[in-house]
Amino acid sequence: MVTIFGKPLILLYGQLTLGLINGAFYALLSLGLAVIFGLLNIINFTHGALFMLGAFTTWALLNYAGIGYWPSLILAPIIIGALGLVIERVLIKRIAGLDHLYGLLLTFGLSLIIEGLMRNRFGSSGVPYEIPSVLQGATNLGFMVLPRYRAWVVVAAVVMCFFTWLLIEKTRLGATLRAATENAPLVQAFGVNVPRLVTLTYGGGVALAAFAGVLAAPMNSVNPNMGSNLIVVVFAVVVIGGMGSILGSILTGFGLGIIEGLTKVYYPEGSATVIFVVMALVLLLRPAGLFGRAT
Questions:
Q1: Which pLDDT band holds residue 2 (cuts at 50, 70, 90)?
Q2: Is residue 254 assigned to a domain?
């Protein structure tokens, strides 16, 4: 049996695959957080709850409307994104310009309300969602057996992250958005409706979380706690990458997923804390994060 540092190679491949999958969710969720923080300067604690609502929306579309997985990849982010627009216009807009603590407390309280309502309706165990038939099974790559759905999750996350980066960094809309983060009054003086841009940005960040929720639905049971289990790690990813950094969120999310997977092979006891150890080291050496800018 081939080994690396005393561990079977097949085990290493398996954990690297798992790390890429976790990294895909870290990247998608942290990307949405970075987009929202970059323009609104709000630490959005509802992100995990909206990720969970994306998964439940997928389940509801199938069970109540007969709409399958593939249309849900489009419909669920649109539905939850629209909910995000309402949240921003009705609640978050009212605390714009106040200290970050107000936004943190508001979104944290809202996430507790959403999770509590879903827990009362569906219980803590959640509901199952079947993998679409075309993605069931696995492919033998010779050196390992790769489940098709997990490969799809990684590919879909990479494509969505690349598309979001391209939109924000390489288009006129993205340039306007980035300019509004630097000097909103000046951008508004040029005729740009900055409040509408802010609302749409929040909705777009929420839609990314819902898209990740759709991808997560077939992997585990869809349950009210699935967002709260991820959100603390995702915030650590955002801090390490640099608050508001789009590229930092993407690269750090995938990178930390791989580091977490390798840690499970060589030091399983530390796999639950390795990301926070990395965060502490990064903050000591570079307080703005790996890709962030000092203010």
A1: low
A2: no
Q: Could you give the percent of the chain with pLDDT greater than 90?
A: 54
Helix H or strand E segment including 108: helix 100-122
CA 184, CA 257: separation in Å to the nearest integer? 35
State which amino acid sits at residue 184. Answer: A
How many Cα atoms within 13 Å fall on the side-chain side of residue 290? 20
Q: Which domain holds residue 228?
A: 31-232
Tell me the pLDDT tens digit for each residue of 14-44.
Answer: 888 889 999 999 999 998 888 888 777 788 8
Instruction: Kindly state whether residue 41 falls inside one of the protein's structural domains.
Output: yes
Domain count, the chain: 1
Calpha distance 26→31 (Å, rounded) = 8
Q: Nearest 5°: CA angle at 281, between 277 and 290?
A: 110
Contacts of 36 (CB under 8 A, 6+ apart): 42, 44, 47, 201, 202, 205, 206
Q: Does residue 283 lie in a domain region?
A: no
Q: Determine the average pLDDT of the residues in 151-169.
A: 93
Statement: residue 6 has pLDDT above 70: no
In a domain, 274, yes or no: no
Give the other-Cβ count within 10 Å of 140's Cβ. 8
